[in-house]
Automatic annotation (TrEMBL):
E3 ubiquitin-protein ligase that mediates ubiquitination and subsequent proteasomal degradation of target proteins. E3 ubiquitin ligases accept ubiquitin from an E2 ubiquitin-conjugating enzyme in the form of a thioester and then directly transfers the ubiquitin to targeted substrates. It probably triggers the ubiquitin-mediated degradation of different substrates. It comes from the Eukaryota. This is RING-type E3 ubiquitin transferase. One of its GO terms (biological process) is proteolysis. Keywords: Hydrolase, Metal-binding, Protease, Transferase, Ubl conjugation pathway, Zinc, Zinc-finger. The keyword Hydrolase applies. CDD domains: RING-HC_SIAHs. It catalyses: S-ubiquitinyl-[E2 ubiquitin-conjugating enzyme]-L-cysteine + [acceptor protein]-L-lysine = [E2 ubiquitin-conjugating enzyme]-L-cysteine + N(6)-ubiquitinyl-[acceptor protein]-L-lysine. It comes from Hibiscus syriacus (Rose of Sharon). Residues 37-71 have a biased composition (Acidic residues).
Amino acid sequence: MAKLSEVIEEDGEGPSNRVPKRQRAERAFDIQGSGQEESEEEEESEGEEASQGGEEEASQGAEESEGEEQLESGAEQGEMSPHTAQDGSISITLADPEVLDCSICYEALSIPVFQCENGHIACSTCCMKIRNRCPSCSTPIGYSRCRAIEKVLESVKVSCQNTKYGCKEAFSYSVKQKHEKACSFAPCSCPISECYFEGSSENLNAHFGNVHKYSATRFLYDRLTAITFGVFEKSLILREEAGGSLFILHNKVETLGNVITLIRIGPSTEKGLFYELIVKSQADASTLRLQSFTKSTPKWVDNPESLGFLLVPSQFSSSSRQLKMDLRVCCSDRFSCYKRPSGS
């Protein structure tokens, strides 16, 4: 639902008259009908005319008094149209919401909006991409602002697409794309393959703790946790005990050994956490160490993007073909000396 601010006035009546048109028309009809009855009764009897005339005057006076009371009551209560809110805004439905999207990138238009000589519009970013040449008519674009569309974008209020997952934000259409990219209620999927639960990261963590409590290796932030899994095991789900955050330790077998990465289940714009992986050789005293930041993904992927990986040579695995390592994920600010990559 879009929301627009608009002043509503009835034609020819002015904003001060709050009595509905139908009510005023009915009262006028009653008065006119009374006049017709009076003229008919005049033809029948002069004596009855005087008596009935007095009664009609009293009745008419009562109706006028009642009408004035209704008028005052309507003015005091501030009667409005059924579709008009108390703040003067109205709710409308856009039959084609794409009219507020850029015809080039198909994303929500953002201010400033430019138009060519023939009225075709585009967002400022696309104007630069197309070298200020309108793709529809080849006329110059990117020099003349479309103020009308900009006012519409500022006036229209929309709800986040993640409303059903708990987001209650309402914002201008021009910032729709920006908000939804950073929305903390973006849906995240359960990492258990047989489970189809989808919800906000907070709800997902609660769901996992209630339904799949024993399907993950538990650990605590800022503490070393010993982890063991098979050389050919593709992944291991980790769950932080205090807050319930979910992580996945991915394992990819390569010719030289195993490639280990750590990701976090959550909105893609979630802030990355510093972590440390330590692997010791079973044959000698060699040690491998990885220090990096987590990257979040809203759902399970076989080949996730990561900011770092640890290549563990084959000789580091035990005779039982298992990898043993220590993991520490830090939630405190004591590692602020490490520069976090943007977007992590």
